[in-house]
Amino acid sequence: MHRTIIALGLGAVLVVTAPHTAAAMEPDLNNPQVVASGLTVPWGLDFLPDGSALVTERNTARVLRVRPGSAPATVTTIAGVSPTGEAGLLGLAVSPAFEQDNLVYVYFTSATDNRIARFRLDAPATPQVILSGLAKASIHDGGRIAFGPDGMLYATVGDAGVTSNAQNQQSRNGKILRMRPDGGVPTTGNPFPNSLVYSLGHRNPQGLAWDPQGRLYAAEFGQNTWDEVNLIVAGGNYGWPTVEGNSNDTRFRNPIVVWSTAQASPSGATIDGQTLYVAALRGQRLWSVPLNGTGGAGTPSALLQGQYGRLRTVERAPDGALWVTTSNRDGRGTPAATDDRILRFPPRP
């Protein structure tokens, strides 16, 4: 595919694969509501049918239920979590059939591996491990999980600091995985036989989001030069560790957007209409990326720059509000007295 490289200034580069055709509808960033404060590295976040949110804390292993206007309530503490560096209790996803099965999924680091478990919200003390044996480390654990529009569970898994994992099809590290809700290999849709691997060549992806047409996008940490947003396709190879950012190597798929690592260090992502939002840690901003409806992107805009420090997770709520979590107590930030916080930005009238 032919691409045009456009410099955006301050080290950012945009890779345009098609013209931008849809205008973004931004949230009301001048009217924030603090829905929770005093947290310790909130990481995973997803919404229940009643509009309340479930949130993980990386270092405490707590799962919290958060509602605007109410104090966070502890749902459970996940047993066996071993937080070290970037590892701990990471992603969370609510079952798309929650009203029937009451299930919540979490991705966490144990003493021996990274794993995914699920529990019933009405019986949270008895989680069931559905996937284990993912290599763990103090860095590059990935950890985001989300259900796709196909009802399958997707997981981002980092290379665990071993770069060769990413190109090893037999390793589940440095990959995006796609699995049935019970952790099994789907009968159709995965590119490699009897394998959970959906895409490969990843360093440390931490954002997953689908556009209205069902296309999957992932945000990924680069090493020293380029962070990425990638359009994910089954069997796609995204180049790490051979490539960081763009290349002319036809074995690998190029990102649709790249930033310098100082501008981004992207973690969570969500899509509202044709706008992809990406939370930036080192960049201390929320990136708004207009999507063009054909798998490409327009010019990104930096929002909330420097206002709340490191931003970890962004999710669109059922009512259209945008929820954003800070990550200033993760050992790399400068926390305010009320950090970490969950902020809610309502949709514009």
From TrEMBL:
Domain Glucose/Sorbosone dehydrogenase, residue spans: 39-332
Q: InterPro entries recorded for this chain? A: 6-blade_b-propeller_TolB-like, Glc/Sorbosone_DH, Quinoprot_gluc/sorb_DH_b-prop
Give the Gene3D superfamilies listed for this entry: TolB, C-terminal domain
Q: Which residues form a coiled coil?
A: none
Pfam families per UniProt: GSDH (PF07995)
User: Where does the record locate the signal sequence feature?
Assistant: 1-22
Alphabetically sorted, this entry's keywords are:
Signal
Tell me the protein's name: Glucose/arabinose dehydrogenase
Q: Which organism is it from?
A: Actinoplanes campanulatus
